[in-house]
Amino acid sequence: MRLLLSNDDGLDALGLQTLHQYLSSAFDCTLVAPDRDRSGASNSLTLTRPLRPTCVREKQYKVDGTPSDCVNLAMSEVIDGKFDAVISGINHGPNLGDDVIYSGTVAAAMEARHLGRPSIAVSLVGNRHFDTAAKVIVQLLKDAHSLSLPANVLLNINVPDVPFSDLKGTKVTRLGYRHQAHPAIPAQHPKGLECYWIGALAGANDAAEGTDFHAVAEGYVSITPIHTDMTCHGALNYLNQWVNDLPL
Q: N or C: which end of the chain has fewer CB within 10 A?
């Protein structure tokens, strides 16, 4: 199996390099990742300037763009294109609940799914035990041949930041969601200009049993199937009735 590995933390991030270390002995791996931290880039593509992939070491490339740019270039045969699957991560920190809307890690996996390849986004809920998350992916890939998912579905995986032996197991989950984010934080600009940091993420609002938040808090690996259909199907009938009553 030929794997494309990417992330949003940058080519030399510990999470990505640890993942490569564990997978390269069993799989043919190519790394294509941003040249710097692009956390929070979501699904953005760079459309206002050309992009330049740079080979840093054998089968490892950095791109002066977003995570989605990296996967798009890699799979457009600019770098290779002939990949069987894409793994994005290991992210430095969680991608739980509505984090997936902003996550560059999830976006890289989503771009791969748009381009017709099975993909996984994997995040460590912390910044210590990256080897644990890497071992989880190795185990999952061993049985990947027996998994059949609908088109355009990718897997969002969150791993507790504990030694591998301390994991309690794996749970299939739905996305929870967070409370409203904290307000923007005023910052000091050297020229006295008004500027702000984006406010920090808030804690979980929906962390009920069955959510990704709950599984990770209980010590389980969370696996959530996600796709890009953001239609609220439950509201369609009500909305149709409302529209039909409008004098238009």
A: C
| Rounded CA separation 81/28 (Å) | 13
| Domain CATH number, residue 85 | 3.40.1210.10
Determine the 3-state secondary structure of 69 from DSSP.
helix
Task: Assess contact for 123 and 91: CB atoms under 8 A.
Answer: yes
Number of domains present in the structure of the chain:
1
Assign residue 44 a region (left: φ > 0; alpha: ψ between -120 and 50; beta: otherwise): beta
pLDDT tens-place string over residues 175-217: 998 888 788 999 989 998 999 988 888 787 778 999 999 999 9
Residues 6+ apart with CB under 8 A from 180: 202
Structural domain of 124: 2-244
The DSSP code sequence of 90-104 is EEES---GGGGGT-H
Q: What's the number of CA atoms in the CB half-sphere (13 Å) around residue 82?
A: 3
| Distance separating alpha carbons of residues 147 and 227, to the nearest angstrom | 16
Burial of 167 by CB count in 10 Å (0-12 exposed, 13-18 middle, 19+ buried)?
Answer: middle
- Joined together, the tokens standing for residue 246 give 């409008």
Our measurement of the distance from residue 197's CA atom to the centroid of its chain's CA atoms, rounded to an integer in Å, reads: 23
Which pTM does this prediction carry?
Answer: 0.92
Q: What is the pLDDT of residues 22-56, one digit of tens each?
A: 999 999 999 999 999 999 999 999 999 999 999 99
